[in-house]
Amino acid sequence: MALAAVPFALIALVTVVDVLAPPDVHLGPFLVAAPALTASFAGPRMTGFVGAVAVLAQVIVAVARTTLTDLNHTFQIIALVLISAFVTFFAHLREAHEKQLTQLRSVAVAAQQVVLRPLRERMGPLRVACVYLAAEAEAQIGGDLYAAARTAHGTRLLIGDVRGKGLAAVGDAAIVLGAFRAASHQETDLPELVAYLEAAVAADADEAEDPGRPGEGFTTAAVLDIPDGEMTLRVLSCGHPPPLLLRGGRAVPLQVDHPAPPLGLTQYVDTGFAAQSFPFEPGDVVLLYTDGVIEARDAAGNFYPLPDRAADWPGDGPDALLRHLCADLLAHAPGGHLGDDAALVAIERLAGS
Q1: Local confidence band at 255 (pLDDT 50, 70, 90 cut-offs)
Q2: Which one, of 325, 319, 334, lies nearest residue 305 by Cα?
Q3: pTM for this one?
Q4: Which burial class, exposed, middle or buried, applies to 272 when counting CB atoms under 10 A from its CB (0-12, 13-18, 19+)?
Q5: What DSSP element (H or E) covers 123?
């Protein structure tokens, strides 16, 4: 590695110049830069070795110019030994921290594979694509969630966003996903399925809720039922952004007339669950997303115009749609960094189905 040669080149340069310098000029203190620089990119062993070479160089300078017992050179050697030991210790701490981060990344990836399973590309007459964009590089998953299940009559899909971040949000997302996977094959109607999800969220909230702060945890969600034999889809929204129907170069929000409150808050609002039907014909694409997409801001503070950007998509399948939107979304966000996690799911009804 070319970078590893820099400290040795620095030591050689300082040593030669110091030996040739006039008697009243001392460049030995510059040798401390070599182990300090090494600690910024190498481990403790390499840092310690460079420090030892720097000390040896200082000894050579002392012998060449005066003697080892010269007080000035003696103090330079002692200071160099102490500083080399100091930076070697910090190189050890940095290396240990990097190993810990690597382990955390591995755990995050494993948790993502268990909690947020990839969706199948083909589900009956549907072609499906999904993507998860984490706001933080070290956190591969958060409170955004999606899932799909095949039933005897069609396909059911869920997308949601848990309030909050961190491990608590991941745990709440796992509860919603587990309830959906358990009940999507059992409950015949969407209202019954969503009622089951609400019961699961409410039961968990009752166990963890702070009595002085009721209603702090909730999950926005949209649940879709797409029958195989009907050119329709049914949507039940629980405070979630409306899906977009892409057809003929237009992006139409599937806004339901009677949305329900987010999961975990229905006990505070006297309302029921009602699903609404929309046409869904061959060639149509439905786009599900979380608020991390539409709340992404550019440098001027403008929100990401998802309907306009989705409508500009030329049309080449759900995978191409999500690649187009992800690249455009990251270009919209300053530095390509989102302020919140974002999830997108695209579903296309294939022709001839």
Answers
A1: very high
A2: 325
A3: 0.71
A4: exposed
A5: strand 122-123
